[in-house]
Each structure stands twice: as C-alpha cells, then as structure tokens.
Amino acid sequence: MIQFQQVTKRYPGGFDAIKQLSFEIQDGELVFLAGHSGAGKSTLLKLIAGIERPTAGSVLVNNQNLARMRRASLPYVRRHIGLIFQDHKILFDRSVYDNVRLPLDIIGFGHQEGHRRVLAALDKVGLSGKDKLNPVSLSGGEQQRLCIARAVVHRPSILLADEPTANLDRDYAQDILQLFKSFHQVGVTLVISAHDENLMADYGRRILRLKHGQFTA
Ligand SMILES: Nc1ncnc2c1ncn2[C@@H]1O[C@H](COP(=O)(O)OP(=O)(O)OP(=O)(O)O)[C@@H](O)[C@H]1O
C-alpha cells in the first residue's frame, strides 16, 4: 500500500510542489494522476519512489516510512518499484538486451534466470528479436517499450509511469495503456500520470487530479 499523510514537498528556493497531500493507494490498484504542466505529478511519483524526500509529512510504501528511512536502505524499497520516467535514460552505448538486463545486474541476479527474465520482458512489450540492436535504431514508441521492459524485468509490485503516453498518437497511447493494464491484471499496483484525461476516462479507474500541488475534485 502507498500512503501519503499530510505530505509537503518544498524544493530549494522555497517552492511547494506538493502541499499537504493525504491519500492511499491500495495494493493492486490502478490509479491515474492528472494535472496541468507543473501541477506536481512528477514530484508525487518521485516521492513514492524515494527519489525525493518530503519536507513534511509521511510517505509510506508497504508500511515503510520513506521520510525516516536511511538513504542506504532506500535501494531495498526500490526493488519493489518499477519506474518509467519522461527522460528515458536509455544507454545508447549498449544493446537493447543490456539496457533491460541492467537492473538485474544491479540486484545481483543469477545469469540464467536473468537471461530468461530479460527475454520474457522483451517479449511482453513486443520487442522480441530486437535484443541485439542498439536502441538508437528503435522508433520512439519502441524506445518507450524498452523502458517499460527495463522497468518490469525485476517484477516490481509497484509500477510508476510518468506521462508514458506523452508524444504518442492516440492509437499507440492506447496500446501502451493496454500493456499497463496487463500488468495490473497480474496484481501490480500502477500509478500512471498523463495530461490527456480522455485516455484515462476509458478505463473507469480512480483519477487523482492535481492542481498546484493539491487535489481538485
Ligand atoms: N528539482 C526541482 N527544483 C526546484 N523546483 C522544481 C524541481 N522539480 C520540480 N520543480 C517545480 O515543481 C513544480 C512541479 O513540478 P513537477 O515536475 O512535479 O510537475 P508535473 O505536474 O510533473 O509537470 P509536467 O507535466 O510539466 O512534467 C514545477 O513548478 C517545477 O518547476
């Protein structure tokens, strides 16, 4: 479960990107995060991932308070989280395979099991057979799929996606959302941010709407 209790995030310079937010996301829930540019969507996702720390309040992920946790312990929490952020951070000096393999190497996965997982993740996102390519030869949409494979290869229980459908045409965006839906169907908790509320509306899921760091109706 993800719980925010009166969370405020103030960036250096004094700007409050998130203001006294409280909410819960249950295990296995799919929640959309909507809001204008600068509303605080990325900040909220970074707080869940422990990339940013709250200035006030508590962020609990699986009952662990990230605000109080020592930095050295954060990697253990992150093992349960998959991240898809806007700046892809693809390594263009490595193959598609090696990009997806990286999180498993960091965790210290065995060679055989790791290999199996990488191929399974690439298959899941529709990139089978492209493992030996350099990511530079993938289309924008395929690079997005590569990022999704890399985010799920360690089978996280929570998947956070920041504007995964930005810059995609509507059909392609629907494909990507279908992919996320398939993770949801196997019990993964998903938080997906997007500008386009029409896309979200089709799914009939809870929408958290942010405006200047606070929820609106
Ligand atoms: N590291 C930072 N230092 C200072 N201010 C920041 C930092 N990161 C974000 N902000 C500010 O916090 C506010 C919220 O930013 P955030 O990226 O969370 O919004 P967003 O809803 O994800 O916007 P977008 O859709 O444009 O990505 C913005 O005004 C932004 O300028």
TrEMBL record:
PROSITE patterns: ABC_TRANSPORTER_1 (PS00211), ABC_TRANSPORTER_2 (PS50893). Belongs to the ABC transporter superfamily. The keyword ATP-binding applies. NCBIfam families: FtsE (TIGR02673). It is a peripheral membrane protein. One of its GO terms (molecular function) is transmembrane transporter activity. Homodimer. Forms a membrane-associated complex with FtsX. The keyword ATP-binding applies. This is Cell division ATP-binding protein FtsE. It comes from Amantichitinum ursilacus. It comes from the Bacteria. GO terms for cellular component: plasma membrane. It is found in: Cell inner membrane; Cell membrane. One of its GO terms (biological process) is cell division. InterPro entries: AAA+_ATPase, ABC_transporter-like_ATP-bd, ABC_transporter-like_CS, ABC_transpr_LolD-like, Cell_div_FtsE, P-loop_NTPase. Part of the ABC transporter FtsEX involved in cellular division. Important for assembly or stability of the septal ring. Residues 2-217 form the ABC transporter domain.
